[in-house]
Amino acid sequence: MTYSESYFTTRESWRDWRIEARALIRFARVTPGTHVLEIGCGGGGLMRLLRERGASVVGVDTLDVALCLAHKRLGSSSLIQIAQDGKLPFCDNAFDAIIAQHVIEHLPDLDTALAEWHRLLKAKGRLALATPNARYPDPAHFADADHSHIFTPIELRQAIERAGFSVQACYTLFPFLSRVRALRALGVITHKFFQHAPYFSSRGRTILLSATKVERL
Predict the structure, then answer these.
(1) Phi and psi angles of residue 209, each rounded to the nearest 5 degrees, phi first
(2) Are 27 and 101 in contact (CB under 8 A)?
(3) 98-136 tens-digit pLDDT
(4) Count of CB atoms within 10 A of residue 104's CB?
(5) How far apart are alpha carbons 152 and 134 in whole angstroms?
(6) N or C: which end of the chain has fewer CB within 10 A?
(7) What pTM, to 2 d.p., does this model score?
(8) 3-class secondary structure, 80
(9) How far, in Å, CA of 50 to CA of 113, rounded?
């Protein structure tokens, strides 16, 4: 997949992106003054929504094109380019919440990344994630050579708990109704109807997860 300015701006126009973004902000419990770190901030669309809610937000990304776009749109000095190793230049317990929208599937070493995120969160800090679901019946929809691993909901929950977090919510969105574009769009519009249906509840296209930091003894 080619990550260009048009990719980031087009993605933010999609209904499913907006649904995910609102859910992640809700999971992060953003109020005025909340200190939020967005991992993989892309073109800055989610940062803009967080700022509208009064959050103090920092965005990091590995891509020049993403950070240049975010800077043009936000005029922000709170944007930092990070290396592929994922090390983050912040002190311990620096943030109330960390948000990562479609990031963890790109990470070759999720356990190391989660340990770093755990370090950065304050006590009982919140982690909010969105990622593709390996149980989605049409995996070609999110095929990308840059993906390291696509998780099932159970795998994701286990990884998050292993890293020292308590999972508060883990469910899927956007059921597979058909490969036909119109029915795929209908699955986005009607996602709440299918969220708790036995077959569809674990097979939605996106996994959403909310967790809080647990202090290690």
Answers:
(1) -135, 135
(2) no
(3) 999 999 999 999 999 999 999 999 999 999 999 999 999
(4) 27
(5) 5
(6) C
(7) 0.94
(8) strand
(9) 23
Give the three-class secondary structure for 28.
Answer: helix
Which residues, at least 6 apart from 10, have a Cβ–Cβ distance to it below 8 Å? none
**Among the listed residues 124, 127, 126, 128, the one whose alpha carbon sits nearest the alpha carbon of residue 214:** 124
Residues 6+ apart with CB under 8 A from 38: 46, 47, 50, 57, 58, 59, 60, 98, 99, 100, 101
Pick the closest to residue 48 from 119, 124, 99, 90 (CA basis): 99
Please state the φ and ψ torsions of residue 151, each to the nearest 5 degrees: -95, 150
CA-based max dimension of the chain: 51
Cα–Cα distance for residue pair 108/148, rounded to 1 Å = 5
Q: What CA–CA distance (Å, rounded) separates 125 from 217?
A: 17
What is residue 209's three-state secondary structure? strand
Using a 10 angstrom Cβ sphere, with 0-12 exposed, 13-18 middle and 19 or more buried, the burial of residue 6 is exposed
Q: Considering only 37-41, 62-66, 105-109, 189-193, which range has the smallest mean pLDDT?
A: 189-193
DSSP conformational letter for 133: B
